Amino acid sequence: MNKPLEVTVNSGGVVFFVLFGKPLSDESSPKESAVVIKIASSRMATQSERLGYEFAKMIGVRTPQARVVHNFSPEWQQIKDATEKVKDAAIVVGDDVGELTCSELLEALELSKCLFLMNYIHGSPILENSSAFCLEENVKRTAALLGRILMLDLVIRNEDRLPCIPRRPPAGKRTNDHSNYPKLVVLLLNSHNYSSSLLYDITWRKLGISLSEEVNGKIDSRSLDFNKIVNEFRGEFCEALGDLQGFHILLLTLYQKLDSLLRVFLTIIDKNSSVDDDSGGISESPSNVGGVGVHFFSTSSKEWVNENLADLSDPELQKTAPKSSPPRSKDSPDGSSPISRENWHGRYAKADIKLNKELELWNEMLKTDVIKLCQEKKFNTGFFEGNENNSVFDAYELKVRLEHILERIALIFDAGNTERPSSISTSLFIGGARAARSLPELFQYKNFAISDSEDTKISDLFEEASNFIENAEHSGGRVLVHCFEGRSRSATLVLAYLMLRKHMTLLEAHDTLLRVHRRARPNQGFAKALSDLDKELCGKVSLDL
C-alpha cells in the first residue's frame, strides 16, 4: 500500500482510496492499482450497503466487487500493519497529508467493527461522459441501464448513488411512497410520453423529450430515434420488474423465517425472565451488572449482549430489548451475606445453563433455516458473516429491512399489474381488468352483472350501455368499457355502441375496434346478438363473426 486518500461521503462514513504501487519484480502487472475502503457509521450500515449491492446484482445493475471485512479477521490486522508502514513512509518524506490520512484510517480501524472493501472502477459521472450520449447504440445502452437503476432505487429506496438500504424510512416518506410509487410505475409502464419526460429529467435534458419543451438543442434529434431510446428505457424497467418477480419468493420466505425465529427468541427470553422474576422477586444478579437484560445471562451471555450495545442506538431497536434491572429494595438480601450470595450464584448458574442451551439451539435453527437458505440461493445478505454473538441482532436488523423492501415491492407489483387501455376515440377506451386498475379513484362506475357465456342475453344491455357512454361523451368525460380480459363482453358492448350511436355497420365497427384492440373476440352467442342488431339497423348482415 503506497498512498491513501480520504473522502467524506453524505451517506455516512468515510471512504479511503488506497493506491498500490507496481511490484519491482513483476513487469507484467499494471503500473498502479487501487482499492476502496469505506468505513460507515456502524456495523449495521456497512452490512446494509452489502445487502444493497446484492439487490443491484439481482436486478441486473453492475456494481464493483465488494465484501465486508470484520475486525476479528487476519485481514483486518494486515490492513492496519500496511497503514502503519505507509504512515511511517509519509513521515520520512514529510508528507503531512499522507500522515494525517493514515492516522485517521488507523483511528477508524480502532473504533470500527468492520469495513467495506470495494474494487476501484475507472470511469466518470454519466452526465460528464460524452460517449454515453453520442452514438445511438451507446444512447440505447445508457437508457436501458437507467431503466434498471431506476427499479433498483425504487426497491431499496435509494436517495443517492450509493445503494445502502435504509433501516426504516421516516413515517412521512413512507406515506408519500404509498401515494407516489403506484403513480410513477403505472405511468412509466403505460405512458410513452411520461417515460420520455422522466428520461429527459434524469439525464438533465440529454435524452427523451420534455412534456412541455422541444428536444434539447445539444442533441441532434435527426440522428437519434428517440422512440427506440425511450422504449429501451421502459423495456429494461419491465425486464427488471420480471427479475424482481423471480426472486420475490426468496425474499418473502427469508422474511417469514426470520420473523418466526425472532418470535421463538422472544419466547425464550420471556420464559427465562418470568423464571427469574419468580425466584423470590430478585431481578438482579449479584454482579450488579446493568444494561440490556444481562441479569439472566451467564458470563458468556453478558459478553454477547455488551458486545452488541453499540448496535442498539436505534430507538426502535431499544424498544424491543429487555429493560435494565430495577433497583434492589431495602428488604432484598444484601450481597454482604455469604449465604445469600451463594444462593444467588447457584440459582443463576442453573438458569444460565438452561438459557445458554436454548440460545445455542436457536442459533442452530438460524443456521439451518436462514443462513443455509441464503447459501443455497447464493444470496449474500451481508449479515451473519461476523461473530455468532451478533446473530440475533443481525436477524432482527435484516428482518426490519426486508419488511420495508417487501412493502415497496408490493407497491411496485400492484402498480405493475396494470395496462394502458386501447383508445377507440378521444373519449372512448376499451380494456380488461388491468386497465381498470390504473386510475380507480377517478372512475364513476356503471356495473353490469353478466357472464361470458353464449346463452347470455347481452342484447338487453345495448341501449343502457350506449346511453351511459353517450352521456359521458356529451358531458366532456371519457369512458373505459372493460370486462375481465377485454375480449368478449366489453368488445360486444363497444361494437353495439358504435352501431347504435355512430351509425356504423357491424363490419365498420369491427374494423374500427380491431385497429386499436386486436384481442377483441365476442363469443358465438354475443356475435349472433350483434349480427341481429346489424340486420335490424341496416337490413342485412355486413359481417359474419
TrEMBL record:
Transmembrane segments: none
Domain of life: Eukaryota
Region (Disordered): 316-342
One BP term from GO: cortical microtubule organization
Cited Pfam families: Act-Frag_cataly (PF09192), DSPc (PF00782)
UniProt cross-references to SUPFAM superfamilies, sorted A to Z: (Phosphotyrosine protein) phosphatases II (SSF52799), Protein kinase-like (PK-like) (SSF56112)
UniProt keyword list: Hydrolase, Protein phosphatase
Coiled coil: none
InterPro entries in the cross-refs: Actin-fragmin_kin_cat_dom (IPR015275), Dual-sp_phosphatase_cat-dom (IPR000340), Kinase-like_dom_sf (IPR011009), PHS1 (IPR035010), PI3/4_kinase_cat_sf (IPR036940), Prot-tyrosine_phosphatase-like (IPR029021), Tyr_Pase_AS (IPR016130), Tyr_Pase_dom (IPR000387)
Record-annotated Tyrosine specific protein phosphatases domain positions: 459-513
Gene Ontology molecular function terms on file: phosphoprotein phosphatase activity
Protein name (database record): Uncharacterized protein
Organism: Kingdonia uniflora
